[in-house]
Specification:
The chain contains twelve helices and ten strands. The protein is α/β, with parallel strands linked by helices. The chain has two domains: 223 residues, Phosphoenolpyruvate-binding domains (TIM Barrel, Alpha-Beta Barrel), CATH 3.20.20.60; 62 residues. The strands form two sheets. It has an eight-stranded parallel barrel with strand order 1-2-3-4-5-6-7-8, surrounded by five helices. It has a two-stranded antiparallel sheet with strand order 9-10. It is globular, with a radius of gyration of 20 Å.
Length: 304
């Protein structure tokens, strides 16, 4: 996965103050939400505000994602018309339960440059996870699965709780589907944005499960998510040692090496190379952010 998705922040497209702050936040992606965070009466104005932001605001490195309303709602068609005209980086479709839904969306968009993200938030979506992820074969714009655990819990009749032990088997099916078909997987939101320790623990759990980042509901949560999916100095040093060892002329054909008392195989080399690529992407982003912060007046508007 080349695109960083450590921190994916939902912002109501109806909230002008939140939209104004978006380009200054250290999130990897911003989801301009037209669905759950926006009431029925506010949806037309929110849609217009999202289109204006996409067309006129420089989001820098931050992916611009629009969560539209589901196909069975009265707002879906207008949302889709806006997305086709505004051309965000990605569109997030809620309540995905089949590959056919994604194929229909791709045909309606008619633009493979707009990535498709799929919300996985129902029991049927979990059962169909492999088929949904496999849709990438016919819908190459599909890049990312996004967990929606609040809706998933409700549909499964699980009590609302920060304890995810009974949800984990469901989530691991999504991990398996994403990894099988080469998609990114972003974890669900943590509802109590004041509980940063609880958030950090859930981020660590998601990373250990193999997820690529976390969706967030408040800017105060960004730092914890970024930190969790940023390799620490020790991990980077270890990865460099593995790469250097296998690059030595006498080891280029070796299948297994002993490094610092550990047996290291070529699968660990692949893992080390991926970690270093991830770390380099983060470092490049940090450098770009520093430059942008020093010369905000030189940043042009981002227009299609």
């Amino acid at each position: 996965m080349s695109q960083l998705l450590r921190s994916v922040l939902y912002l109501p497209a109806s909230n002008a103050r939140a939209l104004a702050r978006a380009p200054t936040l250290p999130a990897d992606a911003i989801i301009l939400d037209l669905e759950d965070a926006v009431g029925p009466a506010e949806k037309p104005a929110a849609r217009a505000a999202a289109a204006e932001a996409i067309g006129s605001v420089d989001f820098g490195h931050r992916l611009r994602v629009v969560r539209i309303n589901a196909p069975d709602t009265p707002w879906h068609d207008d949302d889709l018309t806006m997305v086709k005209a505004a051309k965000p980086d990605a569109v997030l479709l809620p309540k995905v339960e089949s590959a056919a839904t994604l194929e229909t969306l791709a045909a309606q968009l008619g633009d493979a440059t707009i990535a498709i993200w799929a919300m996985m938030e129902t029991p049927r979506a979990v059962l169909a996870a492999d088929a949904i992820a496999a849709a990438v074969a016919t819908v190459p714009a599909l890049t990312t699965l996004v967990v929606g655990s609040n809706d998933l819990r409700l549909a499964a009749r699980m009590p609302a709780s920060d304890d995810r032990r009974y949800l984990l088997p469901w989530l691991m099916q999504l991990v398996a589907a994403a990894r099988t078909h080469g998609l990114a997987l972003v974890d669900a939101v943590y509802n109590d944005f004041r509980d940063l320790d609880g958030l950090a623990a859930e981020c660590a759990e998601a990373r250990a499960m193999g997820m690529d980042g976390k969706t967030l509901i408040h800017p105060s949560q960004i730092a914890a998510a970024n930190a969790t999916w940023t390799p620490d100095a020790a991990a980077v040093e270890s990865a460099r040692a593995i790469v250097a060892a296998f690059a030595a002329p006498e080891n280029r054909e070796a299948g297994v090496l002993q490094i610092d008392g550990r047996m290291v195989e070529r699968l660990h080399l692949v893992e080390a190379q991926a970690l270093l690529g991830h770390a380099e992407a983060i470092a490049a982003r940090s450098t770009a952010d520093d430059v942008a912060a020093q010369s905000p007046g030189d940043r042009p508007d981002r227009r299609p």
